[in-house]
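[Automated response] Your request has been received and processed.

Submitted sequence:
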Amino acid sequence: QDNLITTTYLQRRQLTAPAGQGSDQLWLGDHLLWNRPSLGNWQPESDEEIAAASVLDSLVRWLRGEGPDPHSLADALWEARLGLAVSQAAQGDHEISLERSH
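Generated structure:
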């Protein structure tokens, strides 16, 4: 089961509404992976603003004891490693294989 290969699609859905009150979602097949957070009266305009506001909101909840650690060091290092592998794969004509140890 660990080596099962499957094909699906990754889709970003952006729905616009008046006054910038849009809705962004990220789907993998039929599974919702991410939903644009509600940030009160302030509505970020760029992906970077959404990311920064989401991390800060998660950090505040974590500091108050209302939620989990927003981003572990292990996750950050894995993402950096994955980014390097994607860059290597894009520069060459070969596959890159990574395994994440938990």
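Summary generated for your ticket: The helical segments are 47-63, 73-91. The chain has a mean pLDDT of 79.
If you did not submit this request, please reply to this message.
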